[in-house]
């Protein structure tokens, strides 16, 4: 099994959960999640979105309290 780390910019409180793809300007993936950025809800929503859209498990390695996160895919 190979592991890969990606950078994801997360926008909480969005109208829906959407994987926006790679943003060349930010050099990061962009994800919108409906969940608020409180009590780890947006982080959990991001992990579920990655599983649904990419079919991979994920763990947030850096940025648990930031909008920009380093996520390990497995």
Q: How do the helices and strands line up, and which of them pair or pack?
A:
Blueprint: E1 4-11, E2 18-23, E3 28-32, H1 41-54, E4 58-62, E5 68-73
Parallel strand pairs: 1-3
Antiparallel strand pairs: 1-5, 2-3, 4-5
Order of helices and strands: EEEHEE
CATH class: Alpha Beta
- Class per helix and strand makeup: alpha+beta
Widest sheet: strand order? 2-3-1-5-4
Mean pLDDT: 98
Q: How many beta-strand elements?
A: 5
Assign the CATH topology: Conserved Hypothetical Protein Mth637, Chain: A
User: What form results from the Cα inertia axes?
Assistant: globular
* N-to-C span: 7 Å
Helical segment count = 1
| Largest sheet geometry | 5 strands, mixed
How much helix, percentage-wise, in residues? 10-25%
Uncertain runs are none
Radius of gyration based on Cα positions: 11 Å
CATH superfamily: YggU-like
Amount of beta strand: 35-45%
CATH structural architecture: 2-Layer Sandwich
Number of domains: 1
